[in-house]
Design a protein that fits this description.
The complex is a heterodimer of chains A (about 160) and B (about 500). Chain A is mainly α. Helices cover about 65% and strands about 0% of the residues of chain A. In chain A, helix 1 (about 5-25) runs antiparallel to helix 2, helix 3 runs antiparallel to helix 4 and helix 4 runs antiparallel to helix 5. Chain B has helices at about 1-10, 15-35, 40-50, 55-80, 90-100, 105-135, 140-160, 165-180, 205-220, 245-250, 255-270, 275-290, 300-325, 330-340, 350-355, 355-380, 380-390, 390-410, 415-435, 435-460, 465-470, 470-495, 500-505; strands at about 180, 190. Helix content of chain B is about 75%, strand content about 0%. Chain B has about 500 residues and is an all-alpha fold. The longest helix of chain B has about 35 residues, at about 105-135. In chain B, a hairpin with a 6-residue loop joins strand 1 (about 180) and strand 2. The chains are: A mainly alpha (about 160), B mainly alpha (about 500). Chains A and B meet through helix 1, helix 2, helix 3, helix 4 and helix 5 of A and helix 8, helix 9, helix 18, helix 19 and helix 20 of B.
Chain lengths: ~160, ~500
């Protein structure tokens, strides 16, 4: 099975799994009559499963891609994607406890480092300065300009 | 009508709204110009700013962002030769060659002026069509709304780029996610897993920010480290008179502009096929009707007039179903709908009755924003060119932080911040799987409308399903929905692909 066909089969399988999972959750809904709160979810579950099966079938019957037409070159940089996701999750996890200003400075600084293009030099001082200025500006503008009480966390003493 | 419009102008010419609209247009142009940033991002990020504003000020800012971002795409299309937004894809075909010939400033001038022309054309259509359509829509009941919702959902799912199966799946999954929370009519909790935060379902803004902004940031992270610095074409404003082209050239382009504006307006009204398609269709139409089709692609102004007029004409077109029926045609109007809801306003026919002044203030803000776009985009070009060089690895994390602020600001809950990450991952999954995101959003918005009106319609017709078919409007829309699917299947079966679809695919 070539790459493109395999990818479409995986997508079809994922679509079918999502449909089946939604169907399973729908079966747990209480029933009162034929047309009730579960009626539309049942219709949707059936549609999702049907579309998943159709995608799977179409992908399975898909002719193999001509090897010459398959694009070559560097693939996606999943390591950077993973690091970015890790930073986002970590940022949100500490947001309430550490507070918006400190968590944002840490997140921005680390995220700048992770995303810096390979051909460019990392500038720690500049990154830290931008992170501090951006976090402070956003916090002050939203907290005092728009009355949005962003969590102050460890810096709770500041007004 | 004119009294209301005058009163609308009175409101937007107050100092605070004037400043907001000016800033909105400028920020919108930047988001449209920088590849990777979109109109949806611009509006999503500025929504939290409107929380404490009145509806007139807040909505004026949002429509100014919309106009700026739609037009701003032409800057990247001409100077970088890559479209800043999908609505400027066809602008690169002749914008790039004109830049190479040293006519960059002329290309930009033509683009800006005809973007203005397209916007004003569509706003005029909006002002004349919307109140009339709203009057007609006042007589609509649950059967009609159900029919319209199903038709819109089917149209967007089948006409989105990619396969019909994936488009329909995206629409259905959006509908399925909208079922989380308390059910309409029965008030039973569905799919809440005992979490009180899920009782009211997911907020539209959370879903939009996740699927469009967070997913985009994750997607950019895939390649940003291997990116090379992009060479930004330089243009000189010295010895430029007017907008860089002659009055004779302007009048020669009028038929092309009217044709393209009509295409943009018509396509803009249809759900699912917005400016991303209309600019290409208008380009193809202009080439077909031209006496010199061989000049297209080599740097002729006809090839800039057509896409830029059409994509901006989609603005008024997309606002027609949004304001009169409460149905967004694409992701940008979906987020505008979110903006309306934040201010406690439900778009639909009643809006024209209960909030007539606000509607005309929005119309006035659209006109003012168009004029400001014409001036700012051309004469502020040097500043926007400089902003094209801002590195993505600095810009995107700051946008991420603003997304977090926006989500948190909705109800001061960390739950909403986690939700944008979950929807960001879902959006990223859509990108990787080639599943279009627009039907997902429209499914999420129209799902509750379809379900509620389906249940109400059945109650009105004593459980008889034929009520949906016996109503002429509902029956027609449901018939059209079936016809759209059958037609799409027929085209797929015969293996035909339209020129526009081919360009979008490549």
């Amino acid at each position: 099975m070539d790459g493109a066909k395999k990818r479409e089969v995986v997508i079809g399988a994922a679509m079918l799994v999502i449909g089946l999972a939604y169907l399973y959750l729908t079966t747990n809904l209480p029933r009162k009559a034929f047309i009730d709160a579960a009626f539309v979810p049942y219709l949707l579950a059936a549609a999702l499963c049907l579309l998943g099966a159709l995608q799977l079938l179409a992908a399975w019957r898909q002719a193999p891609t001509d090897a010459k037409t398959v694009a070559t070159g560097a693939g996606p940089d999943y390591l950077t994607v993973g690091k970015t996701l890790g930073l986002i999750v970590g940022y949100i996890a500490i947001l309430e406890w550490v507070g918006f200003p400190l968590a944002t400075v840490a997140y921005l600084y680390l995220q700048f480092l992770v995303l810096t293009p390979l051909e460019q030099r990392v500038s720690h001082g500049r990154y830290l300065l931008i992170a501090v200025c951006a976090a402070t500006l956003i916090f002050v503008v939203f907290r005092h300009g728009f009355d949005l009480l962003l969590p102050a966390g460890l810096l709770d003493f500041i007004e | 009508m004119f009294e209301l419009l005058l009163s609308g102008f009175g409101a937007v010419f107050s100092l605070n709204i004037l400043v907001l609209v000016t800033l909105g247009v400028a920020v919108g142009i930047i988001f449209g110009a920088v590849p990777g940033l979109t109109a949806v991002m611009a509006i999503a990020l500025c929504l939290p700013l409107t929380f404490t504003m009145g509806p007139a000020a807040g909505l004026s800012l949002l429509v100014a962002l919309y106009i700026g971002a739609t037009s701003g795409g032409l800057i990247a299309a001409i100077l970088l030769k890559i479209p800043g937004t999908p609505s400027s894809i066809a602008t690169t075909f002749d914008g790039g060659p004109m830049m190479d010939k040293g006519e960059g400033i002329k290309a930009l001038g033509v683009g800006v002026v005809f973007s203005f022309f397209g916007t004003i054309f569509s706003i005029a259509a909006l002002i004349f069509i919307a109140p009339w359509l709203a009057k007609v829509a006042l007589s609509f009941g649950p059967h009609e709304y159900f029919g319209i919702a199903i038709f819109s959902l089917t149209l967007i799912a089948t006409l989105s780029s990619g396969s019909m199966v994936k488009g329909l799946f995206a629409g259905a999954i959006g509908f399925a996610i909208s079922t989380v929370g308390i059910a309409p009519v029965d008030a039973i909790r569905r799919f809440t897993f005992g979490l009180p935060n899920l009782n009211s379902g997911f907020d539209l803004l959370v879903v939009l920010v996740g699927v469009f902004a967070i997913a985009e940031i994750i997607k950019v992270a895939e390649a940003v480290r291997r990116e090379h610095k992009t060479a930004v074409g330089q243009v000189s404003m010295r010895s430029i008179r007017g907008f860089g082209f002659s009055l004779k050239e302007f009048f020669e382009q009028i038929p092309n502009a009217f044709r393209s504006a009509s295409i943009g307006l018509g396509i803009g009204i249809l759900p699912g096929v917005g400016a991303g398609t209309s600019n290409i269709v208008a380009y193809i139409a202009a080439k077909k009707r031209s006496k010199h089709p061989e000049r297209f692609g080599k740097g002729c102004i006809d090839g800039i007039v057509a896409p830029e007029t059409a994509n901006n004409a989609g603005i008024g077109g997309a606002m027609i179903p949004l304001l009169t029926l409460g149905i967004p045609g694409d992701a940008v109007t979906a987020i505008l709908l979110g903006g309306f809801m934040i201010h406690g306003i439900q778009p639909g026919p009643m809006l024209f009755v209960s909030q007539g002044e606000l509607v005309y203030t929005i119309f006035a803000a659209l006109i003012l924003a168009s004029v400001l776009m014409l001036i700012l985009e051309f004469y502020g070009l040097r500043l926007f060119v400089k902003l094209l060089a801002v590195p993505k690895h600095i810009l995107l994390p700051i946008i991420m932080v603003l997304c977090v602020v926006g989500a948190f600001g909705l109800s001061s809950r960390i739950f909403d911040v986690w939700a944008i990450v979950v929807f960001g991952l879902l959006g990223y999954g859509f990108v990787k799987g080639g599943i279009p995101a627009a039907p997902f959003i429209i499914g999420f918005i129209l799902g509750p409308m379809a379900e509620t009106n389906f249940r109400r319609g059945l109650m009105l017709s004593d459980g008889n399903f034929m009520g949906f078919l016996s109503s002429p409007i509902s029956g027609s829309f449901l018939g059209l929905a079936i016809a759209v699917i059958v037609w799409h299947l027929w085209v797929a079966f015969r293996g035909q692909r339209s020129k526009a679809a081919e360009i979008l695919r490549t």
